[in-house]
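Entry type: protein chain
Record version: 2
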Amino acid sequence: MTSVGTGWASSAAPHHAQSVFRRLLPLAGFPEVPKTSADEGGGQHATVLDICCSYGITAALLNHHVTLEELYDRYTSPQIASLTTTELIESDRKYYAARRRPDAALVIGLDIAAPAIAYGRAAGLLDEGFAENLETAPPSPALYRATRGTRLITVTGGASFLTARTFGPLLDGRREPPWVAAFVLRTGPYQNISDGLALLSMTTEKEGVEIGRRR
């Protein structure tokens, strides 16, 4: 049975999530050196699915030697503010490539904002990205196929916009469900999601910014 961890989200949620998600990777079955799309073999690669991913902040923190404070400083600097979108993408590609962790996980981004998904992919933060709203429509065949190898689903602050409708279609039919780590606003609802996950034999453990154990 897979436990589902929730934490209280704030503007610093990605900072807290950075260490929590990294601790969960080996528990979720990620190899020390993840496979890449260029590796041989036709099996599903272990992936992280970041729901409400926006521009890829979770992927940036998870897979690179950077901190949230450093990213705040970077994106509020006059030098970065003066760049065009094309120039920023090129700058970001170089910035993150130079700080890429050797054990970086493959990250799939899911968000309703197509421009944000496009940026995350162009900047090299998201390995795959899908601009879809699973609250109103089922996942596309491409999204469904891409997430068959997902072993960790992350949410940092977007849970208040979600219900079990987003999670159910992605998890239905899985022999072993992935971990789900969600940082939830203290005043936001999560019961609908946890009830839906319970139907898939998943339990929710609330431990502040800490994540429960797998059993």
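Comment: The chain has nine helices and seven strands.
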